[in-house]
């Protein structure tokens, strides 16, 4: 269509902070995410500190990783934390029933995870076992992590080499308890959650931020029941939402790299469904929690494709293209837009699993297109959201259409304004006029762009990077307005002053 593209940034109307935790991550004991991805062990030839590979830590630090959710996922509700402490040689093994039926040797446990978070400079988000564990077990894990008193749990922690409590804040009360976490009804889960919550205690100054298991996608009834029966604000301070983008369906999801325009279009329109999901779930939350005490935590999201040919189907290893980068940008824009309520989000699953930031092969490492979106969007961490009015042309495919333009505007503490803008159309450049309402003059300081010749371009081992951050300057400023030209299938960041 020939409609005008216009973005009005209301620079004087910002009052919500975009929590940096929206840019969070999730890593499960699944395939080669933990083992091989982060953890190689101290005796490995791959450069590591305390068993954790240096290249991956350095890359994630540079990208900006505010938090890390662990140990699952479905794995969390069959994980028994006491199996993962003490001398590594003496830790019992278990079968990872959800992910390939492999033997888990528990060499990566609580202390190793806390060390990983420490190296990353990331806030830990721990998911407790409500599905197959006990109240006592969860209660003792919190005591082990957070108590500074003299007690059997703190003695145990000290005997394993850690004197001081860690002070873990974010705590999931189970994962997907409507499915792999116990197949519970919302009424049953609400009661169980209240019971577990009662025995996950606060120690010292630390205040636990308990996250109840929230709905699967559009299960509005689950949200309604939890908000009505779950004692919001007291038994839980956050509630999760899981929604994955799947081009086709669960039995045939589609290839990560080999897709046509119809599949690209389906992916983008299904990912935009996040807008409706957030709006409707937040409406329910607003009715029960008008004071906005409970945060919405989108603690699993991203593209789920078929695994790469020849890889273990239980390991969920997929490549990552410019299409994945576009999906990341659109979702992050939506979380920002609803940042009054969305206080955390965690893309699945950081390294070697699903929509990863990093892929590893032996001692080699690749940064994916999605990695570069997170790096670009670092400018929005803890910045003030500036509301925008957007007029966008549509991107049409066959007889369906979606908006071509997605955006976020924010103002950081040093007064700089950052605009991220995406053009979802893979065939056509767009010209956009932006007005910074409330300002008289703006200066264009710098720009960055993520794009490629093909929408299925990806970064591969042993090859030059195809998708990365490049500098961008196709911008004309006059007064408080600017005209920007976005190539087809591109994501741009503009820094203004
Ligand atoms: O991220 C993969 C899986 O997806 C998680 O273990 C589970 O919570 C979800 O179904």
Q: Find the count of extended strands (DSSP E, 2+ residues).
A: 27
Which of globular, elongated, flat, extended, rod-shaped describes the shape?
globular
Q: Radius of gyration over alpha carbons?
A: 22 Å
Q: Architecture of the largest domain, CATH level 2?
A: Alpha-Beta Barrel
Assign the CATH superfamily of the largest domain: Glycosidases
- Total separate domains: 2
CATH topology of the largest domain: TIM Barrel
The number of helical segments is 9
CATH class of the largest domain: Alpha Beta
Detail the poorly predicted runs: none
Rounded average pLDDT: 97
**Kindly, what is the distance between the CA atoms of the first and last residues, rounded to a whole number of angstroms?**
32 Å
The structure class reads alpha/beta
Helix content: 10-25%
Report the β-strand fraction as a percent range.
Answer: 25-35%
Sheet with most strands: 8 strands, parallel, barrel
Strand order of the largest sheet: 2-5-8-9-10-11-12-13
* Ligands, ions, cofactors: alpha-L-arabinofuranose
Supply the key terms:
497 residues; alpha/beta; Immunoglobulin-like; 28% strand; binds alpha-L-arabinofuranose; GH
